[in-house]
Each structure stands twice: as C-alpha cells, then as structure tokens.
Amino acid sequence: MNQQQFTRRAMLKMTASVAALAAAGGIPGVSAAEGDALKLWANPGVHQVGSRDWSAMGAQGGITIAGTAKSARADESIQKMVVGDGNRLFDAMTDNGGGMEDALASQNAIAEIDPSKIPNWKNILPVYNEGGLAAHSIRYEGKVFATPMIANADSMAYDYKALGFHPDSWGVLFDKEFKGRVAMQNDFGPTMTNTAIYLKESGMATIKDASNMAPDEVKDVAEFLIGHKKNGQFRTFWDGFQNGVGLLASGEVLMSSTWEAIAIVAQRNIGDKGDIRYGTMKEGHQVWNNIVMLTRGGKERGQEAAYNALANVYLSPWFGARTLGGLGFAPQMTGVDAYVKANPADFSDADQERIIQILNSKNDRYAISGNAWQNVFPKNLRAYTDWWARVQAA
Questions:
Q1: 267 pLDDT higher than 60
Q2: Which CATH architecture has domain 8-145+288-315?
C-alpha cells in the first residue's frame, strides 16, 4: 500500500509512548557540540537544486548542510520524530504530504518558527498569508511551524503528437476509445482524489469534499474505478518515478495521471519521437506542497539561525527558478519570471521561454475552482485503505 498510513489511532498510541518516554527521561537529545552543519532530513532528488550535493544551496545560504535521504512514508517519518531518534539526528526535515505539520507540532516534535527572521518571507506567495488557501499547510493552531518549498496541482500527462488534441477533462481517461492505453498512479491519495473531483464536478456523484470523503463517497469512487479496471480501461497503475516515465516515453500509454516531473523527464528522454504535455483539467486537480520544518532537537542545539538561512534559500527566486525549470515544481515566492530574465547567463532565451510557459500553465491549473488540497490523513482513512485494497485486487 503506497499511501501514507498514519491514523488518529496511531497518533494516540504515539502520544502515550511519548508520555512514557518523557516520564522515564528517555527522549534522546544531542549537545550543541556535535557540529555546526545543519543536519537536514530531506529528499535530495526533489528538495535540492544547483549541484549534485547540498553545496550549492549551502553556499546560497552561507551555511553547511549535512543531508540525509528521507523515507517516503509519512507514518515512518512521524514515528521516527515522535518516539524514535529523529530529534537527536536531525535539525530540520521536510514533509511527506499535507498534514504532517499538524501531527508533528501537536507532539512537540517540531518548533515554531519566526518568519520575521527569514528576509525572503516578504516574497512568499499570498496564499500562505493568514486566511489564504494554503495558510493551513504551514500552521498549527494559528502558529507558523514550516516554510513552503515546492508545490503543484497534479494533472494528466499525454502525448499530443499521438493524440492530436489537448485533453481538458479527466473523462478521457475513462473513455472507451482509449481502452488499454491509459494509466493511473497506484496510490489512493491522488488517484481517488482526482477521480472524486471528476465525479463531483461532472455531476456523476455527490461528493462534499474530494480531499476528505465520507465512507459512502469513498465507496462510490472506488466502485467507479473498479468497474473501469474490470473492463480493461487501464493499461496499469504505475509505481515509482522511473515506471511513470517509462510508460509515457515508450508509448505504452497515451495518457497518464501523473506528476509533472515525470512528464518533463519523459519528454526529455524521447525528444522528437513524441510530444508529451501536461494538461489542465477543467474539473480540477489535487493541489499539494512540500514544506521544511525546524525540529525540536534542532532548536535545542541552537540551529534556528541555520534553519532560517535554509528557509531563506527555499523562498529565493534562485531556488524557485531552478526547481521550476528542472522538474516543473511551483516556486513559492514571487519574482521568478523577473529573476530568469535578469540572469541570461544562467537561463538562455529558450530556457526562459520554457520556464515562463510552465509557470503560466501551472497558474492556469491553480485557478480551477474544483481543485482540492492534498490530505494524507483523511478523517475516514480506514474506508480509503479498505476500498483501495479492493481496487488493487479487482
């Protein structure tokens, strides 16, 4: 099962474990003498730009970064930080999807941050201001606990050269004309959310909140997918970055619900043999972001200033332009278009045109009213996992 498995019951168990450890004096700590490098737990393939290691980003921030590759599962990350040795090992960490900041802050595993100490915070996208659409994703109980790094609205990749038209609806994935030539992600989070958005916005199902469905709504979405799967509509449900790239680059599928980075890399791999694009679906998309947090241990070791320096890099157009141009992730600050135009030595005319095109199409996706925010901890998680198991087994 690929979707993160954290549940409220697990949270209660963690809370009890933390209390027991604290009472016994057993929560580990580290002295400040262990070194000045910021110990960062992150995904280098996604959260690192400028060089093959963390040196370029460290140079931008005037700090040394000691990076450790991060687990891809939210439940493993939370357990390591709350009852494991995460706070002893790491000064800062990234998340695994929407809601981790609440889970970690509620258990005192991460520390509140002070945006006034991060100069580039003044350039943060307005959606993160109090009352904004994404304000909740960096706050817990009204206090700021995280800095956003990247974001996107996940959509559909397709080979325009083979199709001859630009799909603008999730409905084409379920069209009999393309039976056996489409794929979906083998992860109930984005797949069930985007399918729920389609069914809701097309009037085919009554769904109140596509990112936090009731059990009967989950059932409706799953049964819709099961019906199409049994009829042979899907070539496969893909797992992993390379699998997603390979399906599109080989021409095995014409369309796939996928990450934008997969579409970009697939097109790089095939060159003139195809024309893989990333579309805007009129019904909406699952919207998400990734954040970086200061751990409790990091604050205790005096690494708050180093964290603020890293956060300042993540909110700089230097980072925003490179993450946008490299893998198509949305920058979290204003001024990226002006930055690339002002730095022709780093961005050729062709690069500038491509980056601005990606940014404009991304803004078009963000503007769709049916978009739903990623939620890795839906209220009825058991219904999601049970019904997803039935989809996989169909």
A1: yes
A2: 3-Layer(aba) Sandwich (3.40)
